[in-house]
Amino acid sequence: MSAAAQAELELAVKEYQGLQKDLDKQMDTRQKIVAQLHESEVVQKELEIVEPTGEVYKLIGPALFKQEQPMALDAVTQRVRMFTESIKTTEATIERMQKSMEEKRERLITLQQAAQASRLEQMKPQ
């Protein structure tokens, strides 16, 4: 196996491993966003139960601040929409990364097969 082919194979492996790490990060990000979405949906359901004239408090740092129910519900609804859009964006990114990884994996297999064929060729008696 030539040095150039070996270098190309090593580069392909590093690229694949880098993509795998990036994909893992995106999956973690998606998981965190989904958790935040579920939490916001619970808050949204609770706020929908409260009457519009009911008292709602928001924790900001160590203090509780009174907030009107319609405003609180509006803010939580917007946050739910934001998290939903963020999940869609993250899933699209994950899908693109998986496609790229599949292409790199196929290229890696081709390079490994070529390297193996080269080694077998070198082992043949002349």
Q: Please estimate the helix content.
A: over 70%
**What's the overall geometry?**
rod-shaped
CATH architecture classification:
Orthogonal Bundle
In percent, how much strand structure appears in the residues? 5-15%
Number of E-type strands: 2
| CA-atom Rg in angstroms | 26 Å
Count of helices? 2
Please give the domain count.
Answer: 1
Largest sheet: 2 strands, antiparallel
Helix vs. strand class: mainly alpha
Q: How far from one another are the termini?
A: 17 Å
In the predicted model, the low-confidence regions spanning at least 5 consecutive residues are none
CATH topology: Helix Hairpins
Mean pLDDT: 92
- Looking across the biggest beta sheet, what order are the strands in? 1-2
Order of helices and strands: HEEH
Write down the CATH class: Mainly Alpha
List the SSEs and their pairings.
Elements: H1 3-49, E1 55-60, E2 63-68, H2 69-123
Helix pairs in contact: 1-2
Tell me what you see in this structure.
The protein is mainly alpha-helical and 126 residues long. The protein has a single domain (3-99), classed as Helix Hairpins (Orthogonal Bundle), CATH 1.10.287. 81% of the residues lie in helices and 10% in strands. It has helices at 3-49, 69-123; strands at residues 55-60, 63-68. The protein has a two-stranded antiparallel ribbon. The longest helix is centred in the C-terminal third of the chain and has 55 residues, at 69-123. The radius of gyration is 26 Å and the shape is rod-shaped. The chain starts with a helix and ends with a helix. Keywords: Chaperone, Coiled coil. Residues 2-29, 87-121 form a coiled coil. Belongs to the prefoldin subunit beta family. This is Prefoldin beta subunit.
